[in-house]
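Budget justification note: compute hours in this period were largely spent on complex prediction jobs such as the one shown. Inputs:
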Amino acid sequence: MSHHIVEVKDLAYQYPDGTPALNGVSFRITHGESVALVGANGAGKSTLLLHLNGFLTPQTGSVRIGDMPLTKKTLKHVRQTVGMVFQDPDDQLFLPRVFDDVAFGPTNLGLPPDEVKQRVISALELVGGAHLQDRPPYRLSAGEKRAVSIATVLAMSPSILVMDEPTSNLDPKARRQLIHLLSKFEHTKIIATHDMDMVLDLCTRAIVLRKGVVAADGTVRDILNDRDLLDKSGLEKPLCLQGCPICGAMAAG
Amino acid sequence: MGSIGSSFFDIGHLDVLSSKQTPVHRVDPRVKVFTTLLFIIVVVSFDKYDPARLMPFVVYPVAIMAIGRIPFAYILKKLLIASPFVLFVAVFNPLLDRNPVMELGAFHISGGFISFTSIMVKYVLTVSAGLALIACTGFDAICSALAGMGVPAVFTIQLLFVYRYIFVLGEEAARMARARALRSFGDKGMGIGVYGSMLGQLLFRTMDRAQRIHLAMMCRGFDGEIRYIATPRMRWSDWMFLAGWGGLFALLRLYDFPAWLGRGLGRLI
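Corresponding output:
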């Protein structure tokens, strides 16, 4: 169980040009939690995500995934434990055929071909994309691309899913399907997003970043009702909690 | 620029063609790659003053396209797109080499003209064979075949990525061109200077994307090698394909069939 834990302590990072991105971020996420990482543009969300997978190594502070601190030696293991879904599926799907792309991770793990095949099929089935396996990625719709991106990560059986803006560029229906899909996963989830309605639907806990520090960390219900905090952090209440523009009535809270 | 965008998507049509199921599509990719390479080497090996002997070789691309049900018009269009480059290379031959080598009635045909024809015929043969190969095999299968034949991973991975991202790059370029066209009224803003900064912009975007792709690959355990799912064993029909075409190419290289045909026809007349 303990390998589902993500622990970040006093993490700070400064970009080579001197721009500070993170200024001492600390939190601990335990098994099965679904956590939203919210904050204005430039608050440090993406930089933080890059640390969770070892693309950036902590300048000060530490990152622990499960029982291990994140170091060069544990990198391979960490990357298998933490599945990262990128914002732009075109960055994630880099092979000319969907099947090969989903098979890329498992093959690199050194699994035998039969096992790889089985994992690819079941990952694609899980996201409802089994019929896409022979298609070239650039011919898929945005929703299909997103589903396949998630399958490429699921095929490596990670314990933790990290997603950067999973609902961006999706039409409302595809967005709804994605939220439904994610709600069925039992992985520990960390979702960086501006889609506050999705946060309400999917997450139990929210971490608000502001200028490289954690401005708040609590239950989604508490945070989304703190108008002052949201306003300072460049955020808004989810639309479904705002007043109805037609009947003029304010929702409770 | 819109036309460049659409021709990128037209390349994508090769993928649709490559998913057909015909006897040619079922031949092992390695065999097809090797046979096509052999074809190209043999075609290129002919003397530049000997275009007639190249003619019988048209049978290979034509047969592949016919059996693979690949539309001739499509391949022809692709040939036309690249033809200006070859024309440029070949066009100086008739100008520089005016030595008359043949007489047809009152016309003197110069050596330059014959070598020009030879270059164009070689171009049509080799490029159509290459396109037919991709259309009936699929680019990813060709890359894995090349890897299976011992081509270094550096090259096969590059090829694979060029093919995957040429669409993304094309789309990005088309979007930028559209954005520029919409805000440049008439001729203003269409100058070469704007092009320069657009190209620079495109380069930076591409570099950023390359970095993100690399991250995505590292994320899934990339270590410098793309492992393909094991390739199937060669069947005897694959060997037949190779032996049949290889034999034909050898015969056509060694014996001058067009000359025999010419003499035969001459005698008949």
